[in-house]
Design goal:
6-stranded antiparallel β-sheet, extended, 9-stranded mixed β-sheet, 8 helices, 2 domains
Length: 375
């Protein structure tokens, strides 16, 4: 009997060969014609060889948490060179952990589902650590003194700092800057003249040609609808594949859209490294618990800031977290993973940790551009 096929029940005298050919035809048609959404969500055999009629599974949406710093600052080594002020670098340790209890998915699939859930949580944990580092690096590039002092005493005097909305360079009014945020369309924002001035200032101090400009999603949006850019691009190249390309006045536009962090709900954390795990709920259009990293408050408004630079401007030094770190991972730049069991009640703990220290080789290679576009 073939369920669901009319006139093919056991009460009908249907030859086996005809029934088999009918099923074969259906299988062939099913493989040849695959619905579009089934390409997005293809058929797979459920864990446990499909033995259960229902199951629960871990939520797959990344909650966009952020790993916490913990432990004391630990010195790596002092660096002393002739005629250079000694710098003392400190590695900071961050890490997080999750646990699996004895009854974890007890009534669920036994084959593979726990390992899958464990793998997903480890993936989240790695992302949380990387977001913590990304947050610190964004503060480092911004030149946040409090952040830098937690690692080293680097020299910020060589960094160029421009304000698009204020029309200032290094705190002094600059007539070459339009003094108009690129999101202000009272008149068309003077993007080209602003960039021309900033590129000249960058080359003057660093003796290098700037190669890229890191911008946020709102800045990208306002550049997309800028009439001057539209006019120039229409005259110079085909724009059928998009108005704003990868380059603008020789600068590679690096669109930073993934740098996010969360704050501890109800807490007022003002120093770097402590947004914490944040709200565990995954973000959706009604639960917007995401905050962009490349933003700042100027007056009563929130603006995106940008960075103009060239090649690699620094590095992230890493240190061993644990005496077993070297044997397990081989390199201090690889996250140290540790797992242990507690017998009563039975729980399996998994932790991931990393020690790191950011360093900018020369702040002349980083130009900070503030007040670019309203967030």
């Amino acid at each position: 009997m073939v369920d669901g096929i009319g006139n093919m029940g056991d009460y009908m005298l249907v030859p086996d060969w005809l029934r088999a050919r009918y099923v074969e035809l259906m299988d062939w048609f099913d493989k040849e014609w695959e619905p579009w959404f089934m390409k997005l969500m293809p058929k797979t055999v459920a864990p446990g060889r499909g033995a259960k009629d229902y199951w629960t599974r871990p939520m797959g949406a990344d909650p966009q948490g952020m790993a916490k710093f913990y432990g004391d600052d630990e010195a790596i080594e002092p660096m002393n060179y002739p005629h250079v002020v000694p710098w003392v670098y400190n590695a900071r340790k961050l890490g997080n952990a999750f646990r699996r209890g004895k009854k974890f998915f007890k009534e669920d699939f036994e084959e593979g589902i726990v390992d899958k859930a464990h793998a997903e949580m480890m993936e989240y944990l790695t992302q949380w650590i990387n977001r913590s580092i990304e947050f610190v690096l964004s503060k480092f590039v911004y030149g946040d003194v409090n952040t830098i002092s937690r690692f080293t005493n680097q020299n910020l005097n060589r960094q160029g700092v421009a304000s698009i909305v204020a029309g200032e360079f290094n705190g002094v009014s600059a007539s070459e800057l339009g003094g108009q945020a690129w999101s202000d369309f009272t008149t068309t924002p003077p993007v080209f003249s602003d960039l021309a001035f900033l590129k000249e200032r960058y080359a003057y101090m660093s003796n290098k040609k700037p190669e890229y400009m890191m911008i946020g999603r709102k800045t990208e949006y306002y550049l997309e609808i800028n009439d001057d850019l539209l006019d120039r691009l229409i005259r110079l190249k085909d724009t059928t594949q998009g108005v704003l390309g990868e380059y603008l006045m020789g600068l590679n536009l690096v669109k930073v859209i993934g740098q996010t962090y969360k704050e501890i709900p109800g807490a007022d954390e003002t120093f770097e490294g402590m947004p914490g795990r944040g709200d565990y709920l995954p973000m959706d259009w009604t639960n917007l618990n995401k905050k962009d990293m490349m933003i700042e408050t100027i007056g009563a408004d929130t603006y995106e800031w940008s960075v103009i630079g060239t090649s690699d401007v620094g590095e992230v030094k890493c240190a061993w977290v644990d005496e077993d770190h070297r044997d397990q991972r081989g390199s201090p730049s690889d996250i140290f993973i540790e797992q242990w069991e507690e017998k009563n009640p039975k729980q399996v703990w998994t932790s991931a940790q990393l020690k790191f220290c950011p360093e900018v080789k020369d702040y002349a290679n980083i130009m900070l551009v503030k007040g670019v576009a309203l967030q």
